[in-house]
């Protein structure tokens, strides 16, 4: 099966300093309308430092990079090494200042591209009976 490549446009980047914030590009500022301090959001990032042809071909990893952990398929882990190095976080908005969204600390590098932000919806994001 052939897949056509598609394009993702970063809407901003993660910034790390004394605090962690999301720096949203000005052309996407209107998309922040109605987000509020205290809201929970789903943050989708592109782990750009894991984006190499070799890492994209890696389908088994030792969880947490620890060789004492048995090899597992990347889809059964949260490894940044995967065919498409996307990261997914659920974070609470601490403060909003213009196009800066301050969030709790995450394990992304300064400059990590932000692919998208979605509001967290409990009944969709946390099914009551995941075994059902």
TrEMBL record:
Pfam families per UniProt: TrmO_N
Record InterPro entries: TrmO-like_N, UPF0066_cons_site, YaeB-like, YaeB-like_sf, YaeB_N_sf
Signal peptide span: none
Record carries keyword rRNA-binding: no
Keyword vocabulary terms for this entry: S-adenosyl-L-methionine
Domain TsaA-like: 8-129
Entry annotated with the keyword S-adenosyl-L-methionine: yes
Domain of life: Archaea
PANTHER family reported for this sequence: TRNA (ADENINE(37)-N6)-METHYLTRANSFERASE
Family per record: Belongs to the tRNA methyltransferase O family.
Protein name per the record: TsaA-like domain-containing protein
Organism the protein comes from: Pyrococcus yayanosii (strain CH1 / JCM 16557)
